[in-house]
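Anyone? Bumping this.
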Amino acid sequence: MSAPGYFAAAHPFTPIAFSAATAGLALLLPGDGVLLLAVLTAIAVTAGGAARAIRHGVLLVLPLAFFLVLLHGVLGDASTAGVPILGTAIDPAGLRYAAVQGARLLTMILATLTAAYTTDPARLLDAVSGRPALWRVVSLLLVTRDTVRRFRDRAGEIVDAQRARGLRLRGSPWRKVRALRPLLFPLLLSALVDSETRAIGLESRGLLTMRQRTPLAPRLDRWHDRLVRYAALAAVLAALAWRIAR
Amino acid sequence: MTPSFYTGERRPSSAASHLFSLVPAAVAVNFVIGRLVAELGLPVYLDTVGTMLATVLGGVMTGVVAGLVSQLLAGLLSGYQWLAFAPIQLLIVLVTWWAVRAAGFRSGVRALGWGLLAGVLGGTMSAVISATLFGGVTATGVTAIVAVLRHAGVALDRAVLIASLTTDLLDKAVSFLLLALLLRALPRRTRFRFPSAIRAIGESLGP
C-alpha cells in the first residue's frame, strides 16, 4: 500500500485552506494569471498526492468548456472579427474568453476535488472537537453526506419495488410524470420518518451539547502545515489588494 | 439555549434539534429526487423540493440551512463555482415561506401560481448569475437552449434569460404542485407535528 500524499497526511485544515485559497485566486486573478494558476494548481495537486482529482476535474469541466467555445468562439461576434475555419467563422476574442473562463472553472473544480479527496471526515471532526460551534457545522455536513448515501440506496429499492408492482418508467412524458408520485411519495414520507428517528437519537446521545469534546486521536498541527495555510491566506490577500488597487 | 435541570449544562434548543433532524433528510431529498428525475428523462430538475419541504415543516431558518448545505454539498462534489447559485436557494425559501403564510398549498391551482412566481424570480436571478459569472454556461440542458437561441441570432444576455425562465418556470411549478400533493397526502399524525404544514394547506389545528 502506497504512503498517503502530502494533503492526506497533513492537518485536515491544510487541504481545505489550500482549496479555498486556490478558488479565491481563480476568481481574483485576470486572464493570463488564471491560465498560469490552472497549471500551477494541477502541479500542486499531483505533487500533493491527489492526482485522481485531475482526471475527474477534466471530465467535469469538458461539457462546460465545450459550451464556452460554442457560445463565445463559434456563436460569438464572428460577424465582425470572424476567422474562417472549416467553414465556420471563429471569433478569436471569444475563444480567448472561453479559454480563460474554462481555466478558471477547471482551477476551482480541482481545488474542490482536492479537498474532497484528501480530507478524512473522522480526522476533520477530531480537529474541530475543541470548537463546539464549528464541530456542529462539520458534523451536520457529515451527517447530511451519510444521509444522502443512505437515501440513494433507498431510492433504488423504491424504484425496484414499484417496478415489481407494475410501474413503467419508459414511454410518453405523461407516463413519466405520472410515475413521479409512486416514486417520490414513499421517499418523502420515509425522509420524514427518518428525521424523527434521528432527532430522538441525536438528543439521547448528546450530539448537540455545547460541551467541548475530547478528540479520539489528536492531530498534530506541524509548522509546515501552518506555513502552507498562512501562505495561502497571504496569496489571497495580496491578490485582493492588487485587484482593489488596479 | 436552556440550562439542563439535572446538570446545569447549557443544552441546545429544539430549533437546533430540528435543524439536525430535518436538514439532512431535506438535502438527501434534493439530491435523490434530482437524480430520479434525471433518470426518468423529464425536462425538470426538482432539486429544491427538499429545501421547500424543510421550509414548510421547520420554518425559514431550517429552509435556509437546508438550501445552503445542499448547495455546499453539490459544490463539494462538482466544484465551488456552483456556490454562486446559493442565493437562488434562499429566494426559493422566502417564496415558499410566503406561500405557507398565505395557505398557498391549499389547492393545486394556488400551488401552481406560487410555483410560477418562484420560477420567474428564480429564473431571473439564475440568468443574472449565469451571464455575469459564467458567460452563460451552466447546466447542460439550459446551455443547450442558450446555444440554439444564439444560433437564431438572439443576444447572449437575452438568450440566457429566456432559457433560465423557461426551465425554472416549469421546474418550480411542478415542484410546488408536488409539494402541495405531498402535504395533503401526509398522515394526520405526521401533519400535526408540523403546525406550519397545516397552515400551508389552509387547515386549522382545532378539532
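Late reply, but here is one note on the structure posted above: Strands of chain B lie at 2-3, 10-11.
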